Amino acid sequence: MVLLEAMPFRIKVSLSILLAFIALLVIGPFLLPVSPLKDTQPEADLADSDSLFMNQDGIDIHYRDTDLHEAGGPELEDPLVLLHGYLFNTDSFRDLQPALARNGRVLSFDRPGFGLTERPERTSLVGGHNPYSPEGHVEVTRAFLDGLDIGEAVVFGHSSGAVTALELALTHPDRVSALILAAPAVSGAGSGPGWLQPVLKSPQMNRVGPLLMRQLAGDPGGGFLSANWGDPERIDDAAAEAFHRNFTVDGWDRGLWEISRASHDVTFLDRLGEITQPVLVLSGALDTIVPSEDSRELAGRLPDATYALLDSCGHAIHEECPDETAELVADWLADENLLIPAGEAR
């Protein structure tokens, strides 16, 4: 107190302002009113005719299961599982899934934090991990396969879903017979500078974080969608509706915030040589999010990878160019002997 009284008035004012600012940063977030989300519904109320749900490891997982194979044609030896990227969901595979299902069973599911899968508490561990973390997404994928009694699968991952697919192949190699990586967001993926993590996990940010996520439902979200397409003019109503599905579910803001809190840099890049399964890496020449050079470099670091470039596609390859993607995948599956020829028994 004597020290404060001895300070010049100018310094005392400056110190008072600084202390007030610190107090505002510490206490202010708790004073912000958090209004409830509007116009949202429970997951089950938003389901459509081909929606399916399973409760696996304590989480209600929304998925789609499609098999349009006809006798007389080549058939998938193992089911094909589709993993969407950040701010996408199973609806983004609306065209690709049935196209691929002409060769057999194809499944897709909403990863925690997206679509119609339950937004659990982050303390609801799956395989010992926070379900919103990168490791948690791997374990939810493993649990999904377990729930359907699928031993091995061909795993297709788009963007951050490709990161999950790669890590699944490393942590559970016996569950993955092959990988298809579309615009894999491996280089530069993660949570930003290390100093940011304590901030993201602070009680203050835990309160205001969901409010920040709500901005994605407005103009910033539209900008995100446009950035994923090589030609935004090709975004139709179905694509827009698929994207906005993420913002119609109860608690979607908290789910996206939990994804942000739990994210971290990829830690397995020095282990890519351990992935011995055949891999197809797909890239869009118009992709401004994951440049094609990065995807080509990733393919070069994998022991058994094929790289393909789609000239007229952006980052959302599976949505903008579903027919070309399905054709490339089907040809590659045949080349890698992952299709059972017509007339041969399983």
What does this structure look like?
- This protein has about 350 residues and is of the alpha/beta class.
- It has one domain (about 45-340): 3-Layer(aba) Sandwich (Rossmann fold).
- Helices cover about 40% and strands about 15% of the residues.
- The protein has helices at about 1-5, 10-30, 95-100, 135-145, 160-170, 195-200, 205-215, 220-225, 235-245, 250-260, 290-300, 315-320, 320-335, and strands at about 50-55, 60-65, 75, 80-85, 105-110, 155-160, 175-180, 280-285, 305-310, 340.
- Strands 1-2-5-4-6-7-8-9 form an 8-stranded mixed sheet, sandwiched between helices. The chain has a two-stranded antiparallel sheet with strand order 3-10.
- Strand 1 and strand 2 (about 60-65) form a beta hairpin.
- Helix 2 (about 10-30) crosses helix 7 (about 205-215), helix 4 (about 135-145) crosses helix 5 (about 160-170) and helix 7 crosses helix 10 (about 250-260).
- The longest helix has 23 residues, at about 10-30.
- Residues about 1-25 have low confidence and may be disordered.
